[in-house]
Design goal:
Layout lengths: L1 H10 L2 H36 L9 E4 L8 H6 L4 E3 L2 H33 L9 H15 L1
Helix pairs in contact: 2-4
């Protein structure tokens, strides 16, 4: 019974729940970045470079493959060795954009924290005891 109790304490700790929430939000954030890359940025890059789809970029290292053959079809050709670098380019761009987005998010949060720390804290109104003690001190000074 001790193992189950220990596991329950571990599973409901705040840090484990925070991690779970972070993983879920990270997955959703990854999908957003994926969409930004595939739907917004890649079309702009492909307009400049001329290739619509990086995933079909490859070099045949050994064997013969017909020109303009899709990567999946080229892989089916027997006795060929293919260096498929296009998908790596797409994944690298996704990573760089995700890293940039996370950096901007952290930078924004840090900026907000600095502003919050820099704001002067208004002095709290003195409590009734403090007011009473101040009056007693002033009366004693005047005597």
């Amino acid at each position: 019974m001790g193992f189950v109790k220990e596991f329950k304490e571990f599973a409901v700790k705040g840090s484990v729940m925070d991690l779970a929430v972070g993983v879920i939000i990270g997955g959703a954030f990854g999908k957003i970045i994926d969409s930004v890359v595939k739907d917004l940025i890649m079309p702009l890059i492909s307009a400049v470079i001329g290739s619509v789809d990086f995933s079909n970029l490859y070099i045949v290292l050994k064997g013969e493959v017909a020109a303009n053959l899709a990567l999946e079809e080229a892989r089916k050709v027997p006795d060929t060795v293919i260096f498929a670098y296009g998908n790596f380019i797409t994944v690298a761009i996704n990573f760089l954009l995700l890293a940039l987005a996370v950096f901007m998010l952290v930078k924004g949060i840090n900026s907000m924290k600095r502003k919050q720390e820099a704001e002067p804290v208004a002095p709290a109104a003195p409590s009734k005891e403090e007011v009473l003690l101040a009056e007693i001190r002033d009366l004693l000074k005047n005597k």
